[in-house]
DNA sequence: TATTGTTATACTCTATAACTATA
DNA sequence: TATAGTTATAGAGTATAACAATA
């Protein structure tokens, strides 16, 4: 019922906190190495998977739609993203990465060494166990 | 050498991304439930462990010292933190939580359900395995 | 001279509310 | 009338540079 009171759980909680801190640090660093903010890098990563309407970006970022306007504005000013009309609904604007945007998203992904490097220290079997435990943690 | 190219590692990397996203979401939510921003909650948590000079807070937050001034200003205006002189060096100001700050930090810690709830689904042995794998990942 | 904390400035992200153009 | 996107506004975090007080 209250596993957070036992020392083992506390230890795991703190380790997760460390993983989160490290992940963020390296993510921001990777973004900065391409002159992008974290939010810009996140959006560019999304769009590299699939061109996306403004509204949907806001949902995926869990932020207000008005914020997306600015983020896309800045990515567009950098030539990494463009707004396209949606033929089926003229209210909608679909954000899509330009060629350079796709390239930058690829580099960004490669420079995210976080998981690659530390996971190299784990065997295949251990990585499989980690995957299963994380999956169960996330429900 | 390049474990990120194999599907298993990719899966683990994505799971870690999910853990990070969920951790942040719940952290911000817990902070907001006490009318605090994430940065304010983080600093209050630090100070609850130990009163800390401004400079040191900046180092622990990995940000510029000038930012800490504003964060402490806002916590001080809320009566959660106070600045104390350091008798041994009159340049230094030590930020310390007030009584209410200590109380708020405690409530904050309790409302961080993130790890408590999902970890309840793992057995003690599984939590121990998870702890060991995370420790090795973090080097 | 070097260090601590602050101020001033500028940019980005964030939420809220009001607006427009479509539907 | 409802929805998609934008604009306007205000608050918070961030970095940079310059400054006062102290070491």
Tell me how many strands of chain A there are.
3
By oligomeric state, this entry counts as homodimer
* CATH homologous superfamily annotation of chain A: Winged helix-like DNA-binding domain superfamily/Winged helix DNA-binding domain
**Helix and strand succession of chain A?**
HHEHHEEHHH
Second-tier CATH architecture of chain A: Orthogonal Bundle
Largest sheet of chain A: 3 strands, antiparallel
Radius of gyration of chain A: 19 Å
Topology:
2 copies of one chain form a homodimer.
Chain A: H1 7-32, H2 38-49, E1 52-53, H3 54-61, H4 65-77, E2 81-85, E3 93-97, H5 99-111, H6 113-119, H7 124-137
Antiparallel strand pairs in A: 1-3, 2-3
Helix pairs in contact in A: 2-4, 2-5, 3-4
The structure holds a DNA duplex (23 and 23 nucleotides).
Give an account of the 3D structure.
The structure is a homodimer of 139-residue chains. The first copy, chain A, is mainly α and 139 residues long. Chain A has a single domain, classed as Orthogonal Bundle (Arc Repressor Mutant, subunit A), CATH 1.10.10.10. Chain A has helices spanning 7-32, 38-49, 54-61, 65-77, 99-111, 113-119, 124-137; strands at residues 52-53, 81-85, 93-97. Chain A has a three-stranded antiparallel sheet with strand order 1-3-2. The longest helix of chain A has 26 residues, at 7-32. Chain A is elongated, with a radius of gyration of 19 Å. The model of chain A has no long low-confidence stretch (mean pLDDT 92). The interface between A and B is large, with 42 and 42 residues. Chain A binds a DNA duplex (23 and 23 nucleotides) through helix 2 and helix 4.
